[in-house]
Design a protein that fits this description.
This protein has about 450 residues and is mostly helical. It contains 17 helices and four strands. The protein folds into three domains: about 200 residues, Clc chloride channel; about 170 residues, Clc chloride channel; about 30 residues. Helices cover about 70% and strands about 0% of the residues. The chain starts with a helix and ends with a helix.
Length: about 450
């Protein structure tokens, strides 16, 4: 009898506790992200008055790298933005150094306003996690509660960055693991995300939504095109991840003084901007809007944006990765629509969220993101493409600190429970005859490549 009364009573108190704490965190993060977003917007408006503002990029990357090297910073962490927070949650129960937060935020503003290809959501997630960690330290919460508060902070930061409270809440609990969601943090994450979004909106942050009223009559042909789109976007995610990894390896091989190396990266970006176009610089919001309104992307747009982003983040720049992913995804979607002779707006929107699903291993958050930004009519098609893109990307991610919780295919033996950077996968012949045939073809192609070498 006592147990029947005791359990609901404990759960009721726990719910009240986390409703209160999540609300407080949401308010704090709402104010923090608003201050950052307004500062960033002011900086972008200021520099946009100068047509060749990106000439300052080498100096900006030099300064950003110098700040990271000589001011308080997590020198053992090579990740940026959200990736840094994920690593802190997994390895240090969410503990983040308070002095690191302003250094990273200033470095991010310097990077983006000078034309560096980076995103705004990473700093917002850092603000959320950093302020939550400080809050937990002030009130002496234990490691378990601090970890939950920091996860709530990630959700609140993402929600305030893009004006998507539900997707933000899911993103915070889905991005930590590949194939697993932390249900114990779901309620406070929802509350923190909603409150943070409401606060930032009330303080004057405006968000861009595109309610797509297009309703395609369901047919086998269109369904097949959506499936093919998911595969295409999964491959695009792989290309983005590989370009980022190549840039990381290249940066490590250049062993000169870090600020000097960053300045060289800045000069390379400026040269590329002159050689191609300056559209790949900065946040790229105008280009994303262009694709979502039916603009035609060139076949190389998503590749060049990936290169600009890789150089920026691997050569001293600071910032997030999701906004560049929006650019890559929407341009890839525009290209796919042109190839299939379909509506560009529809597939640019599907591509935008599918790249998020594939590159960051967050298919559920990406599917909800499609509903919040583009409306419910696109959601079923976007969800199919998101899941396929997620599976096609394999055991890779733009966040190498994510922990692998499950294997995406029975034919790939992967050790779970480790972060993706230290995860190795091996192919096996488990599965049906189709799987076996595909593996044999892949092995023959690999042998031919080795023989040529």
């Amino acid at each position: 009898m006592y147990k029947r009364i005791e359990e609901p009573a404990v759960l009721f108190i726990s719910i009240l506790k986390w409703v209160f704490l999540a609300t407080v965190i949401g308010v704090i993060i709402g104010f923090g992200t608003t201050a950052f977003l307004k500062t960033l917007k002011w900086g972008i408006v200021f520099t946009s008055n100068y047509s060749l503002y990106y000439f300052s990029l080498p100096a900006a990357l030099f300064l950003s790298a110098a700040m990271v090297k000589y001011l308080p910073h997590d020198h053992d962490i090579e990740s940026h933005g959200t990736g840094k927070v994920i690593e802190a949650v997994h390895k240090r129960a969410g503990k983040l150094k308070a002095a690191v937060l302003p250094v990273d935020l200033v470095a991010t503003v310097i990077t983006i306003v000078a034309g560096g290809s980076a995103g705004q959501e990473g700093p917002c997630a850092q603000i959320g996690a950093g302020l939550s960690s400080i809050f937990a330290g002030l009130f002496r919460f234990d490691d378990s509660d601090r970890r939950k508060l920091v996860i709530c902070g990630i959700s609140a930061g993402f929600a305030a960055a893009f004006g998507t409270p539900i997707a933000g809440a899911i993103y915070g609990v889905e991005v930590l693991f590949v194939g697993s969601i932390l249900y114990d943090v779901l309620l406070p994450s929802f509350i923190a995300g909603i409150i943070s979004y409401q606060v930032s909106s009330a303080l004057g942050i405006h968000y861009s939504y595109h309610n797509i009223g297009f309703v395609h009559v369901f047919s086998n042909a269109f369904f097949l095109k959506v499936v093919l789109a998911g595969i295409f976007f999964g491959i695009s995610s792989l290309i983005l991840i590989e370009i980022l990894e190549f840039g990381k390896g290249l940066s490590k091989r250049i062993t000169v003084w870090l600020p000097l190396r960053s300045a060289v990266g800045g000069f390379v970006i400026v040269a590329f901007a002159f050689l191609f176009t300056s559209r790949y610089l900065g946040l790229g919001l105008e280009s994303i809007e262009f694709y979502l309104k039916g603009g035609k992307a060139a076949w190389y747009d998503f590749g060049l944006k990936s290169i600009f982003t890789s150089i920026t983040l691997n050569f001293g720049g600071n910032g997030g990765i999701i906004t560049p992913i929006f650019f890559v995804g929407s341009s890839a979607g525009s290209l796919f629509a042109q190839l299939m002779r379909e509506d560009i707006t529809t597939f640019a929107a599907i591509g935008m969220v599918s790249l998020v699903a594939g590159a960051s291993n967050t298919p559920i958050a990406a599917s909800i993101l499609a509903m919040e930004i583009f409306g419910p009519k696109l959601a079923p098609y976007a969800a199919i493409s998101c899941v396929i893109s997620f599976l096609m990307t394999g055991h890779r991610s733009v966040y190498t600190s994510q922990v692998l919780a499950f294997t995406k295919s029975l034919s790939i033996e992967v050790e779970t429970g480790k972060d993706l950077e230290n995860t190795k996968g091996e192919f096996s012949a488990r599965g049906n005859w189709v799987t076996t045939a595909a593996l044999n073809i892949a092995r023959k192609m690999r042998l031919r490549r080795y023989k040529k070498k």
